[in-house]
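#random but structural
TW: two for the price of one
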Amino acid sequence: MSDDISDVASDPRLARVLRSSLTRIADGPDGPMREMAREVLAGRTDLRTALREPAYGEHLGAAFGRFWTDFQAMSPDERDRLVKDTRQKLDEFNQ
């Protein structure tokens, strides 16, 4: 891949995961995020530009805030398990 997604995620495995995530978002119920994902996947905008747009940034910031709150509430063992599981799923996704 030599598109914008690969530029953002230089690891090819992460680029595939990011593209897959954008595809799921593009098919999802969240209007502004669905629109952003469709624009990026269609090549009408690049990911960096889209994420700087206030309408999209607010939604992304809110989602990250929820994740960060949950992550901070985890015990160190839970965090380690999350990292391990995420790495394993990343490897499985890219086989």
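TW: number two ↓
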Amino acid sequence: MEYRYLGNSGLKISEITYGNWLTHGSQVENDVAAQCVRAALDAGISTFDTADTYANTAAETVLGEALKNERRESLEIFTKVYWPTGPGGKNDTGLSRKHIMESINGSLRRLQTDYVDLYQAHRYDTETPLEETMQAFADIVRQGKALYIGVSEWTADQIREGVRLSKELGFQLISSQPQYSMLWRVIEPEVVPTCEELGVSQIVWSPIAQGVLTGKYKPGQPPPAGSRATDEKGGADFVKRFLRDDVLERVEQLGPIADDAGLTMAQLAVAWVLQNPNVAAALVGASRPEQVSENVKAAGVKLDSALMKRIDDALGDVVVRDAGKTAELAPKGRVA
């Protein structure tokens, strides 16, 4: 495992970070989730990412239980706030001071820790003044409940304004958590250059494009039983944008490239995002411990420019690069 600094800070995190979206508390049993966390620790992963909304708070509880006997100082635990939790009442969502303050306390209780290393705004809240949100984050940092602040799926302009306010209020906004993969490169035109300028790193989710870049989905064939594309709890909605024959035919061309690199297609996909110098970590999940062991083999892999060009040539025009997608897919108001 290799470790990278997160943004313009002294915090180092494992470049493969374990995330438990769509798994803990929903897809897999708790004992299997604990085995996956154990596999991550054994592989040198020290950074764990979750959110209060995952499985409506159950994912945080499962992760807290799995990590409770580990040395806290050796871990970096990340969580997030924005999406609805609990019964979904009028103040159970968004980035108001009320919701943030209540949410951090709930997250710490479920995670069985006194603080999180990184507390992230899971989306931008169009219904709360940004000044209110950032003041609440500043207070949480001063209270010692979070060490650093990050955001997820914010536009370049939103990140710039967030960083400005964080500096005025005396805390560090050091990370952005966007979707990023060989197939989904919408952060490259605007978000990445802005973050490089401001000292903000990317912690990217879905580097394997919801499993599409493993090669398991075949053109002209139904999705394999038990795959993300058949999961109606949420995974199917995210993966369907990639399940077009033209995309899948292009993805098949990555197989020989992965073979030449001595990697599986999944490892190639994770290694690819880590070639971007603004990426501090790739988030990987798992429903089986052996998946963790396989994914971590992408750590430390260097892909030369010729191989990177072969990947670009193979995927061609199926790659999504439109910077406007971040704003287009963002919630236009709080989701109840």
